[in-house]
Amino acid sequence: MIAELIKDSKKIVIKIGSNTLANEDGTICRDFLQNLSKQIQFLIEEGKQIVIVSSGARIAGVSTLGKWMRKEDMHYKQALCAIGQVELMDAYRRVFAVHDLHIGQMLLTREDFSDTNRTLNIRNTLFTLVDESVIPIINENDTVSVEEIRIGDNDTLAALTANLWNADLLILCSDIDGIYDKNPKVHKDAKLIEEVTNIKQLIKTIEIGEVNDFGTGGIATKIGAAKTVNDYGIPMILANGKKEDILLKLLEGTEKATVFLANNE
Ligand SMILES: Nc1ncnc2c1ncn2[C@@H]1O[C@H](COP(=O)(O)OP(=O)(O)O)[C@@H](O)[C@H]1O
Ligand SMILES: N[C@@H](CCC(=O)OP(=O)(O)O)C(=O)O
């Protein structure tokens, strides 16, 4: 099912979470980015168009400065994102350049999607970048939108982007294999749910656990993202971006994940 879905999708939005992108000590994981760029080059050679939504500015800010780690003050968090966004994009630029791939930065807020003029401008930039074979890398604009740092809305941002771009598929890369019946980081016997056709039913039956380390939205915003795209007819896959070659393995059918099918009730 998942392999077919990826095979049949031309326009794919891929969201990378903070925990996926970071090493245990909070620094940007270069090996992860190198592996991601290799996989994206492969997908592009297969004729796919890719848009990336990437978190990680705050983590990158912490590891760049090596301080403010424990400051929970919103102004410090915003400052960390401002510092880290530069690092983050530099890291992406370097690894993608190895494959002759160009990137473009887009910083957006949720409000931008409810304003007709701004939406049109986002659309024009997004379509032009993709038409010119440049990979857009989108993050929240954490300077102007503090709400989104608090609730970890890059999952929602990825879903809104998928709808705006009329994507064929949204893939959220996190640090777990998909949705489980309970938090797999806490319960060793948690069971992976491979296919979701009814989100309302899913919410009633699973336990939504705590967010860990640098993640901000947790599993709830991922389910919300699935609902947003599914309502638009776009399927969503939640997969473990920490696993090497995960996108290629999903394409081969040798790895598991959770798929939210677009005919969701
Ligand atoms: N039922 C569940 N199934 C899967 N993950 C869960 C569940 N409940 C809580 N989680 C937690 O949600 C985390 C993913 O959310 P988050 O940390 O925000 O990731 P990201 O940084 O990728 O956005 C997982 O690492 C896991 O610990
Ligand atoms: N814009 C913030 C990310 C917030 C966020 O959504 O994080 P995550 O839950 O890891 O996707 C940053 O780049 O650090």
TrEMBL record:
Recorded superkingdom: Bacteria
Q: Which residues bind ATP?
A: K15, S174, D175, T216, G217, G218, I219, A220, T221, K222
User: What chemistry does it catalyse, as a reaction equation?
Assistant: L-glutamate + ATP = L-glutamyl 5-phosphate + ADP
Compartments annotated for it: namely:
Cytoplasm
Per UniProt, substrate binds at: S55, D142, N154
State if Oxidoreductase is listed as a keyword.
no
Q: Which UniProt keywords apply?
A: Amino-acid biosynthesis, ATP-binding, Cytoplasm, Kinase, Nucleotide-binding, Proline biosynthesis, Transferase
| Residues of the Aspartate/glutamate/uridylate kinase domain | 10-240
Name the pathway. Answer: Amino-acid biosynthesis; L-proline biosynthesis; L-glutamate 5-semialdehyde from L-glutamate: step 1/2
Q: Name one GO molecular function term.
A: glutamate 5-kinase activity
NCBIfam families for the chain:
proB
Q: What does this protein do?
A: Catalyzes the transfer of a phosphate group to glutamate to form L-glutamate 5-phosphate.
- What name does this protein carry? Glutamate 5-kinase
Lineage of source species: Bacteria, Bacillati, Bacillota, Clostridia, Peptostreptococcales
